[in-house]
Each structure stands twice: as C-alpha cells, then as structure tokens.
Amino acid sequence: MVVDRELGYLYVAEEDVGIYKFSAEPNTSNTPTQVDADGSLKPDGNILTADVEGLTIYYGDNGTGYLLASSQGNSTFTVYDRQGSNSYLGSFFVGKNNGIDGVEESDGADVISTGLGSAYPSGLFVTQDGSNEAQTVFLDPVDLDEYQNFNTNFKFVPWENIANSFDTPIAIEPTSYDPRNPAPQELVFGSNNRDNFDAGTDPQTIDGIQDFVFTGAGADTVDISTTSVPTRCKNRIYTGSGNDEVLPTKNDGVFGGQGNDTIEGAVGSGSNRFYGGVGDDEIVVGTGDRAFGGGGNDTIEASVGGGNNRLYGNEGNDTFSLGSGDRALGGVGDDRFFAGTGGGNTITGGEGVEQFWVVDLELPNAVNTITDLELATDVIGIAGFTRADLTFNQDGGNAVLGVAGTNVAIFLGISAADLQTANFVFA
What is the pTM of this model? Predict the structure, then answer.
C-alpha cells in the first residue's frame, strides 16, 4: 500500500488481481477504482504480471508525478500518471550494469524525487532484488520441485536513468518536494457561531499551509489566499450549515456544506478542487481548477480565471460562465452556458433543457464545441446579433455556426441543415 499524502488517495496492490485506488477524504465513497489489472485478467495483454508488489509515489510539483508498481511476474516496474485516472505511461526494468546483476522478482521499491547529494542529484529509486547473484539456493518447503534463491539485496538506481529511458522522457524534479521540511497538518475548528479565519492576520490560528479547517454552523469566512507561503498550501476546508465564503490558495480542497456558499477560487493560484454541496452556491474558478456544483441551483464562474478548468454542475438548474479552454458538464437539470469571449471551450449539457449562449455581445476568440445539442428542446442564444448574421457550414459530421463572418461554435453530430432548424434566441 501507499498513500498519496498530498492528493488524498490510498493505493492498494492485491498480488494476483491488480492495483486499486481509494479516496482517503472523509465522507467519501469507500468503493475503489481499479488502476490496472494483472495481465492474466485482461484480454489486451500482460503489462502488469502477478505478483503485484511494491507501490511507491514519485512526488512532482503541483500534484504531478507518478505511481510506480513492481510487476514481479516479469521483473519490470510499471509507471502510471499520478493525476486523474492514473494513465499507464510505460514500464522499465533494472538490468545488469558495471558488474552488478539486474533485478528479478522484486518484492518492493521506494522512490524519492529529492536530490540526495552528488551521488543522486536528481532523485533515487531503491528496489529489492529477490534473486541476487551469486545465488544461494534451497529447496522450497512448499513446492518440493522448486528451488529458491535466498540471496537478496537492494539496488540503487539514479532517477534520471529511469526517466530518460522512456521514449518520451518523464519528469526529473529534484526540487519539487522536500521530505526534510514537510508542512505540518493543522486541525482548525470553528464554532456554531460566525467565524472569521484569515491566514494573513491570524497565522497562529490558521496559516494556510496544509490546514484542515472545519467551520461548523454559522455564516463563516475562511481566507487562506493571504498565506505567507502561497506555494505550499494543500489545505482542506469543510464548511457547515451556514452561508459561508472561502478564498483558497493552491492545490486546496473546499467542501461546501448545506448553505448557499461562495468559493472565490480566482484569487488563488489554481489546481484547486471545489465541491459546492447542498445549496445554491457560487463557485469562481481560477486556472486549472475543478468545480462540482452539487445539489442546488449553482453558478459556476470561469470567465475571470486563467482557463483550463473542469466544471460540473451535477444536480439543479445551473449557470456557467466560461473562460478559455474550459470543459463544462451541466449534469441533471435545465442549465445555461455563456461561452464568453475566451473560446476553445467544450460544453456538454447533460440531461434537461439547455441554453447554449454561444455569443454574448462580443465574438469569441476561438471556436467553442457543443457536444450534445438536442434540436427538439435545447436553445442556442445569440446576443448582439440577428438571424441575418448567421452562417451554417458542414465540417465532416459536424455543423459549424458562424456569426458576422466568424466561426463561433461547432455542434458535434449535427448537420448544417438541421442546425438551421434549431431553437435560436436573439437578445
């Protein structure tokens, strides 16, 4: 097992089955997702071969890095992306070098990204070699037809040797993580009255560095955007039943409660996770954030951010204002999407009657993509222009909508002829 202490996940290896990922956050599902399965259980090959052993994490900057596993059955090590769905990136083996034998049948490994002096300036990978040379063998007391080598040891491998062995080299980040100076995780509890936590004015109570904050009831304010160390952060904030306001920093997780909460993510440095919870919440995102509206009629605002956000309305009639390069999914409910001027957004309405405002007075800088327009029910909104300004063109299996000579939106799976019959609204 290995715990991702920054992103909040527990990874478990079941020797003859595969690798599982659990959320380590309170009040989340205890149902795991499978990162990878033993090759004998998959129709597409044996990348991971039982026994599955030796999970370890390479910590990069801003939540990046890698999950590594020992694939004992073929004496290799598999590498997965630490973020998202843990995509498989490749495998490597530790071979013979300078008179030192290679690694076979490894039971475990560890990796550190931090530079360790002149010998390992770019980090170190350590693995157990289950069959060291020269062999010292004995008869297996269980399987009397098999001999075992009980001469084992550990092999040290410079991380840059591993990283550069990939066709596309993986990251080498010797300064991204400092195990010698880990930030303490502090518990901060509010009251059932109105609380005001400010990392800038009261750092003795809350400093904005890996704090766990529970606000309790009341209309509370938590401002950790004023922390003196905005690059370390990684806080977790849990609001209560009041109408709360939270101003995060970087790599923070904000979990809204039952009130109508406001999360001002644009003041932070990005890569945050926001969960609105129950209530009609307003979530403002910055750069590379993830926002989940929850159960109410939420407003998710990305137009003031830096782009590349992922926005999920979930349940309720939600309103989205997009920036650039954002992805938005309405979920269940009658949602409204305002594409804005940034462009390059991808919008999926989900279930319900949707409004896609592809022009908000000003033309976008890049084409937006609508993935699931329902011609019979959904609405396409145009502000500041008229029907006479529209053009309809075909691009493969998709329709392209132009306004005043500028292509503004692509509608996937829709013909240009059918798009002309859609429900347009002009303002």
Answer: 0.61
